[in-house]
Design a protein that fits this description.
CATH topology of the domain at 93-305 in chain B: MetI-like fold
CATH architecture of the domain at 93-305 in chain B: Orthogonal Bundle
Shape of chain C: globular
Number of helices of chain B: 13
Low-confidence stretches of chain B: 1-23, 312-320
Mean pLDDT of chain C: 80
Mean pLDDT of chain B: 78
Strand content of chain B: under 5%
Order of helices and strands of chain B: HHHHHHHHHHHHH
Distance between the termini of chain B: 59 Å
CATH class of the largest domain in chain C: Alpha Beta
CATH class of the domain at 93-305 in chain B: Mainly Alpha
Helix content of chain C: 25-40%
Radius of gyration of chain B: 25 Å
Structural class of chain C: alpha/beta
Strand content of chain C: 15-25%
Distance between the termini of chain C: 27 Å
CATH superfamily of the domain at 93-305 in chain B: MetI-like
Oligomer: heterotrimer
Largest sheet of chain C: 8 strands, mixed
CATH topology of the largest domain in chain C: Rossmann fold
């Protein structure tokens, strides 16, 4: 198992022009350990007071993988658990159960400050709110310089500054010297998000956790950030876990798509495959709800009015059963597990796993 | 080194080149201070408070400029009325009252600023740390703060000062600071709590910063206006408490200060014997200094709560 | 103002606006020939429009100067029509909405134009006259229900407040009407006793809409009511609004930054950019053949969920600083079809095939030159 030590030298040179991730994308299939892997990842929160203790299931038994040079989209509505997963992977929360493996090593084995620091450099996070994620009293160079100071202490101050400049150029903030001197309120939302990416990049990460990085930006600015993410995957060999509720943007950037519902994974697979042949009724519902001006309106008479449940002390059974028009007997008693039904395409649905045609919405 | 190409499409334009930004400072913390000075200038109450405070500071810093007599020297005839020679007359003990007043300013101001800085400083560290560190730390620190809050302040001050017999300036500062920081700590903790979940703090955490660093460098600078307001409040209360303590005899009688003036005036039955000025003069000064701090606080209310800011000038430059 | 930074949101205030209106009226009176000042003449072609906005301009008085957030916007709304106002942050759409609803408060101020509703110019009305109109003929649905609803009162109590404020006092009537409007939006009336935080996001927004329909007004104004919701809840809310509109025949002005959301529901679409109307026309036509380069760019910036997967480029640059608006066309710095003339002269609003476009590309096109600004 590799030690978590500082890598000598700079980032690896580009071996070849960006090659598309393997169709399945599951590195485990080809025998090598994926970059990031979770096994039974679970996070519960205790809510209520001393008299009535209840458990909120934020994440339940999640097995996901992210390979090298891959963008994996984690999609779901609010409350589905996707943000909690990001925070578990960033070690802001500790898992209630299950394990996270990064480059083959268990995260729970991280003890020393040096290891923690090293991990936080390899797996940084980019936040959702460009207005709140940068400290307003410092110039935007502050975060980048601190990141460099903590994670690449071998550099001198001048070297750090020129590295910061270089990184700002990479994310498209030019002229870098000028932008570095600005304060956050002097930049637009899109520019601030780019600063967020630059802050993550200076630590030479392997995997960036992007928690809804574009949802608070204007539509015409989003494309720029999404293109940046694709470029980072190709040119910088960085994997990205892209958390979003917007399937269209997930389709635009991602190689693989994971759909979450009520703390569990409902479906996952290559993005085109999942969107073209959605097998889980929830995925179908989501797809039908995405507004597409170019398609004629297919308004069903009975538009679904349900909301994703807050998963508190849940009974066994599929959590989508109340809203699912295809629910059968077993759905009410047995919680479906993720099962492969095609190359790299997995779904957690009894109806789909039984081989029957799933046409819900 | 890897081949890294910047985005081929032109990068997002900056709204305004840096060189054309306004001359006012761009650092929000310094901008906060500039806002303070603007608020002070334009809010009349605050301007008066500021002027008053500066006056007192100057007087206490350079007392020899105005008062040529030794304040403690009991060499004059007693109980003279105001005259050209003794601007406020003399005390019942033969001291020049004006000199006493001028020289008496220094201890009071030292106490005011000492307590202001000390109490606010401790409150900042403890309050913000409690809010940010949370959990066990928060519980313990909160307990300490609450206990100190519940203890009645003045009796505690009396007991401590009495135990130490005569309390000189330094002791006074220490005692009032020790008993007074808890209230501000509570306030700052509340504000820090509201800031705790801001993304930029989480970003610092994820970056790998130590918690103390985050508290000192990331949180505290964003709380400057509340901290300054707390400083003013603590200074105000220090003035009042210290002079009260001195008045009831717990101060050091050898130190010339407004409080001790009041004390000796009371001891010598100043009102009854027609030497009202002996009480009124220091009394007015105490009130004046307290008012200076209180008036300045108006300016900070405005900064802290934008809804209180009046609409200013703006129309002046409309062309056509 | 840096672009993309939060547009100053006017606070909701039903303050004594007499002083404001008095000033405004004096300013109007002081100007000889209003039309000459505003420059534009809007020919009303729809005398039976229920809302007629003409040359409405709104200004913000800031420490750093004045910013014209809405610049001479005009449009007419027919009864039962659904008009969507679309644009990015900073374009002035929310300010426009608040100006129409007469909900602006300092530092925002209407400095020109008129808003004629049901035959009366609302800008000049006193507060008591406005109160007679508010909620009975015109109601507003805000962006975030959690901000607009009182968190310490139950939904039913808030409905009661509204009805009593407008003269309905009989308890039976209040109760039955509250239950009725909740049922209209698909919420079980048992939730009249619930507090806002006990309802889900979608239900909260729907109860806001129910509150807006208490007196079945003629016009309902909505400021991004779906932006805090998930995509499924958004869809169901839009369908709900469309259903209610069909049933009760009220007109809707819907402000949003997401044009695909309204693509199937709005009759007309107005695209705003930097405080001005960039394009205005029937929705379907705008989507099928957008005229203004900005609209073209906007449409292109939405990745498609079906259809071919292709790289998009968005619109480079950022909206202009409204404190110092550019001399010519405001979109010129970012326009892929920019001509020399665009930098120097501001284009007027030209009509092409029933669409109003603010772009020199359409100046000489077939169709009357509607009106052009100097």
């Amino acid at each position: 198992m590799t030690e978590l030590t500082a890598q000598p030298g700079g980032p690896q040179p580009d071996a070849a022009p960006a090659v598309a991730a393997a169709p399945g994308g599951l590195a485990a299939e080809s025998g090598t350990e994926p970059l990031l892997r979770t096994e039974g990842l679970t996070k519960h929160f205790k809510i209520g007071n001393a008299l009535s203790q209840r458990t909120l299931h934020a994440v339940d038994e999640v097995n996901l993988q992210v390979g090298e040079r891959q963008i994996v989209a984690l999609a779901g509505e609010s409350g589905s658990g996707k943000s909690t997963i990001a925070r578990l992977l960033a070690r802001i929360y500790q898992p209630t159960a299950g394990e996270i493996y990064f480059e083959g090593r268990r995260l729970s084995a991280i003890r020393s400050r040096a290891d923690r620091l090293r991990y936080s450099g390899l797996v940084p996070m980019v936040f959702q709110d460009p207005f709140a994620s940068i400290n307003p009293v410092f110039r935007v160079s502050h975060g980048v310089m601190r990141g460099l100071k903590l994670h690449r202490p071998e550099l001198s101050r001048e070297q750090r500054y020129s590295e910061a400049q270089r990184m700002f150029e990479v994310v498209g903030l030019t002229p870098a010297v000028d932008v570095l001197q600005r304060y956050p309120h002097e930049l637009s939302g899109g520019q601030r998000q780019r600063v967020g990416f630059a802050q993550a990049l200076v630590m030479r990460p392997k995997l960036i956790l992007a928690d809804e990085p574009v949802s608070m930006l204007d539509v015409s600015i989003r494309i720029g950030l999404l293109n940046l993410m694709v470029q980072l995957r190709d040119a910088e060999s960085v994997s990205i876990l892209y958390i979003t509720h917007d399937l269209a943007s997930a389709r635009y950037v991602a190689d693989r798509l994971i759909i979450m519902y009520a703390a569990m994974i409902a479906e996952s697979g290559p993005v085109e495959e999942v969107l073209a042949n959605p097998k889980h009724p929830y995925t179908q519902l989501l797809l039908s709800a995405v507004p597409d001006p170019r398609a004629p309106l297919g308004v069903s008479a009975e538009t679904d009015r349900g909301e994703p449940p807050k998963v508190i002390d849940p009974a066994p059974g599929c959590r989508f059963r109340q809203r699912c028009p295809l629910a059968i007997e077993v759905c009410h008693s047995v919680t479906p597990q993720l099962q492969a039904i095609g190359t790299g395409h997995e779904v957690a649905c009894h109806v789909a796993q039984s081989g029957a045609e799933v046409k819900a919405f | 080194m890897a081949m890294i190409r910047p985005l081929s499409a032109p990068g997002p334009d900056l709204p305004v080149p840096v060189s054309r930004l306004s001359a006012r400072s761009r650092n929000p913390a310094v901008r906060g201070l500039q806002r303070m000075t603007t608020a002070i200038r334009s809010n009349r109450k605050a301007t008066w408070g500021f002027v008053l405070l500066v006056l007192f500071c100057l007087v206490s810093a350079f007392p020899w400029v105005l008062a040529h007599d030794d304040p403690s020297a009991m060499i004059y005839p007693v109980s003279l009325g105001p005259s050209a020679h003794h601007l406020l007359g003399t005390t019942g003990l033969g001291q020049d009252m004006f000199a006493q007043l001028i020289w008496g300013a220094r201890p009071v101001l030292l106490i005011a600023f000492g307590v202001g800085l000390g109490a606010t400083g401790i409150a900042v560290l403890i309050g913000v740390a409690a809010a940010y560190l949370g959990g066990w730390w928060d519980a313990v620190l909160n307990l300490v703060v609450d206990v100190l809050l519940v203890i009645p302040l003045f009796p505690l001050l009396i007991i401590i000062a009495g135990y130490l017999h005569s309390a000189g300036t330094l002791v006074m500062i220490a005692v009032i600071t020790f008993t007074g920081w808890s209230y501000t700590a509570r306030q700052l903790r509340s504000q820090a709590l509201s800031l705790r979940n801001r993304d930029f703090l989480e970003a610092a955490r994820v970056r790998g910063e130590r918690r103390l660093y985050i508290v000192v460098v990331e949180i505290i600078p964003t709380m400057t206006s509340l901290i300054v307001a707390s400083f003013l409040t603590n200074a105000l209360y220090a003035v009042l408490f210290s002079t009260s303590l001195q008045f009831i005899g717990l101060g050091d009688p050898t130190v010339v200060s407004w409080g001790t003036m009041l004390r000796s005036a009371e001891n010598n039955e100043a009102f009854q014997t027609g030497q009202a000025l002996w009480i009124i003069a220091p009394g007015l000064c105490i009130v004046g200094l307290g008012a200076a701090f209180a008036l300045l606080n108006y300016a900070f209310d405005e900064i802290g709560n934008p809804a209180l800011r009046p609409l200013r000038r703006a129309r002046v430059k409309r062309s056509g | 103002m840096s672009s993309g930074a939060a547009e100053p949101v006017p606070a909701i205030a039903d303050t004594a606006a007499g002083v404001r209106r008095g000033r405004f009226r004096r300013r109007l009176e002081a100007v000889p020939g209003l039309q000459a000042t505003t420059g534009a003449t809007y020919q009303p072609e729809h005398p039976d429009a229920i809302l007629d906005v003409r040359d409405l301009s709104v200004e913000y008085l800031l420490d750093s100067g004045t910013v014209v957030a809405v610049d001479r916007v005009s449009f007419a709304l027919m009864p039962g029509e659904f008009v969507a106002i679309v644009g990015e942050s900073g374009c002035g759409k929310s300010t426009l909405l608040f100006a129409i609803a007469q909900l602006l408060s300092p530092p925002a101020e209407i400095i020109g134009g008129s808003v004629t509703f049901a035959g009366r110019n609302m800008v000049e009305l006193t507060d008591s006259a406005l109160n007679a109109i508010r909620w009975k003929d015109l109601s507003v649905v805000m962006q975030s229900a959690m901000n607009a609803l009182n968190p310490v009162k139950s939904i039913g109590a808030q409905f009661k407040d509204v009805m009593r404020a407008h003269g309905v006092t009989a308890r039976q009537e209040i109760a039955s009407r509250s239950a009725e409007v909740l049922r209209m939006v698909g919420i079980d009336p048992i939730h009249l006793d619930s507090y806002p935080h006990q309802l889900s996001g979608g239900m909260r927004q729907r109860s806001m809409i129910a509150m807006a329909l208490l007196f079945t007004p003629e016009l309902v104004i909505m400021d991004e009511p779906t932006s805090a919701l998930d995509v499924v809840a958004q869809r169901s809310l839009m369908v709900q609004i469309a259903e209610l509109k069909e049933r009760f025949g009220f007109a809707v002005i819907f402000v949003t930054h997401d044009m695909s959301l309204v693509s199937h529901f709005s009759d007309r679409l107005m695209v705003m950019y930097a405080g001005q109307v960039a394009e205005l026309g029937p929705t379907r036509q705008l989507f099928d053949s957008p005229a203004h380069p900005y609209t073209v760019g906007l449409m292109d910036a939405f990745p498609s969920i079906r259809g071919p997967r292709r790289p998009l480029s968005g619109i480079p640059g950022s909206p202009p600083d409204l404190a110092r608006p550019p001399q010519g066309c405001r979109f010129a710095p970012r326009c892929p079809k920019v001509m020399d003339r665009c930098q120097a002269d501001p284009p007027g609003l030209y009509q092409v095939d029933g669409i109003d476009v603010r772009c020199f590309l359409y100046e000489g096109a077939v169709g009357a030159d509607r009106w052009s600004k100097p």
